[in-house]
Write a structure and sequence with these properties.
Elements: E1 4-8, H1 15-29, E2 42-47, E3 50-56, H2 63-66, H3 74-82, E4 85-91, H4 98-108, E5 114-119, H5 126-131, E6 142-143, H6 152-159, E7 178-182, H7 189-197, E8 201-202, E9 216-221, E10 224-229, E11 234-237, E12 240-243, H8 249-258, E13 261-267, H9 274-286, E14 289-295, H10 302-315, E15 323-326, H11 335-349, H12 355-368, E16 380-388, E17 393-399, H13 406-419, E18 428-433
Parallel strand pairs: 1-3, 1-4, 4-5, 5-6, 7-10, 7-13, 13-14, 14-15, 17-18
Antiparallel strand pairs: 2-3, 8-9, 9-10, 11-12, 16-17
The structure holds guanosine-5'-triphosphate (GTP) (2 copies).
One guanosine-5'-triphosphate binds near residues 16 and 147.
Length: about 450
């Protein structure tokens, strides 16, 4: 499981600058999609070989408005409660302020490791920029420059040193697809889980060993194995699973990261909200296979059905790689079809793409439409091979490939997906330019 780093600090110390710095590599993997808006408070990042989730508590810092530290906004409090590591940012140019001291007092009670990060330290003597902040009693201050990127790798290595590297769960003994059922509060996730598990054989159901573990519920359906990764803090009461915790963006992100196939649940009786779009954005960034279940279809009339279909097209157009199902979790209608799509999305995500066919497909695409010249450069693509699964990655070798525009990358993605009939999974293109082997690597 990826550790969660939560950024805390008074306004203007550079939290969002650090957040952007910590999540940049991941964002760059996904070509900008029309309509995609990212939630700039929650992200997935990687520095060196360390993966993590990062949360910026900016925007819901209530201190300026309320003036009282112990009235921190609920969301910031929830993020602090769910953090593995807290980064407390202060401003090395402004020096120590009373507001910093109040936040420090709160964080000391958080029961989480806190690291004191002194930002805006570029061009300054380490010992001088840090001097003030020893008084906070939070250990040695760590000077960085979020804007320039100084000290960031050392920071991540240090704060995550005690967490095990995230390893892919082994695919041992054919446990089948790992599924995460996600969606904003009240869309019907628990109802869908119960409809799925109600009559099925739940093979073994262990409570997690530690609070950091997610709950995995293995079950069997029509002779096939699945594992449900819990997002909602599900607990079993008798035969029924119910949510015991309030909605958590962090848990949602964790579950998306740990699964193979996401089932995104939307509520047809409500409008598509920003929260739906943000969750959809996380799913796109993650590269996971996806099935969309538009729930409560039983409760809406034809007019509303038409409306919601159009709203989905408009706001979630970037999910068009996925199959959509219009279901009633309450009545069990459409649930079997959702599971069929889960199977085919999983198969597509795990597909094996032979090199000769990939290269032939690439050549056909180039013949149909060559990549545009960019200044002095004409990108040259020579051959392709598969670089990974879930999502399938196609690695293309050639020259001047850093000059390929996002629109052409999307054209290539579509071409490969159609050629190999991949449905339900995104596909990623990575470029390797011969004279610079690092371009396109993550
Ligand atoms: N010199 C310098 N300026 C920085 C650095 N990081 C951020 N800044 C500047 O500090 C200001 C505040 O940065 P933000 O990232 O918006 O700060 P924040 O903590 O997210 O602020 P809120 O959104 O108000 O909570 C901006 O003008 C940044 O350009 C840095 O490393 N060095
Ligand atoms: N009409 C109708 N109502 C549904 C359907 N599915 C769920 N509901 C109702 O929607 C409400 C919310 O359902 P839950 O399953 O608790 O939703 P959830 O997404 O798990 O909610 P949280 O636990 O808050 O995350 C309940 O009152 C359900 O009975 C459906 O298919 N049709």
């Amino acid at each position: 499981m990826k550790p969660t780093i939560v950024l805390v600090g008074r306004p203007n110390v550079g939290k969002s600058t650090l957040f952007n710095r910590l999540t940049r590599t991941r964002d760059a993997l996904v070509a900008d999609q029309p309509g995609l808006t990212r939630d700039r408070h929650y992200g997935i990042g990687r520095v060196g070989d360390r993966d993590y989730l990062v949360v910026d508590t900016a925007g819901f810092d209530p201190v300026a408005k309320a003036g009282i530290m112990h009235e921190m906004a609920r969301q910031a409090e929830q993020a602090i409660a769910e953090a593995d590591v807290l980064l407390f940012l202060v401003d090395g140019r402004a020096g120590l302020t009373p507001h910093d001291e109040q936040i420090a007092a709160r964080l000391r009670r958080a029961g989480r490791p806190v690291h004191l990060v002194v930002n805006k330290a570029e061009g300054m003597e380490r010992s001088i920029v840090s001097a003030d902040f020893h008084a906070l009693g939070l250990g040695a201050p760590l000077p960085v420059s979020a804007a320039h990127g100084d000290g960031i790798k050392q920071l991540v290595d240090l704060v995550l040193a005690d967490f095990p590297l995230d390893e892919e769960p082994e695919e041992a003994e054919d446990r089948g697809p790992r599924i995460a059922i996600v969606g904003r509060p009240n869309v019907g996730k628990s109802t869908l889980v119960n409809s799925l598990l109600g009559e099925e054989r739940v093979i073994a159901f262990d409570m997690p060993g530690t609070t950091r573990d997610a709950i995995a519920i293995p079950f069997e359906r029509e002779g096939r194995n699945y594992t449900l990764i819990d997002t909602a803090g599900l607990r079993r009461r008798g035969k029924i699973f119910e949510a015991i915790e309030k909605f958590s963006v962090i848990k949602t992100l964790q579950a998306i990261e740990q699964c193979n196939v996401v089932v995104l649940v939307l509520d047809a009786s409500q409008d598509i909200s920003d929260q739906d779009a943000h969750i959809a954005g996380f799913i796109l960034d993650s590269g996971r296979a996806l099935v969309v279940a538009v729930n409560k279809w039983d409760s809406v009339d034809d007019y509303r059905r038409e409306l919601i279909k159009r709203a989905i097209e408009h706001k979630l157009g970037f999910l068009s790689f996925a199959r959509f199902h219009y279901i009633s979790a309450l009545k069990g209608a459409g649930v079997a079809a959702v599971m069929k799509s889960v199977d085919s999305a999983y198969a597509a995500a795990m597909v094996n793409l032979p090199t000769p066919r990939l290269t032939r497909t690439l050549q056909a695409a180039l013949a149909k439409q060559a990549p545009p010249r960019s200044g002095m450069f004409r990108p040259k693509m020579r051959y392709a091979h598969q670089g990974g699964n879930n999502p399938p990655v196609v690695v293309i070798h050639g020259a001047a490939l850093d000059q390929v525009p996002a629109s052409y990358v999307r054209f290539l993605e579509r071409t490969f997906m159609e050629a190999f009939k991949l449905q339900g999974t995104p596909l990623r293109i990575q470029f390797r330019t011969s004279h610079n082997p690092y371009i396109g690597k993550d």
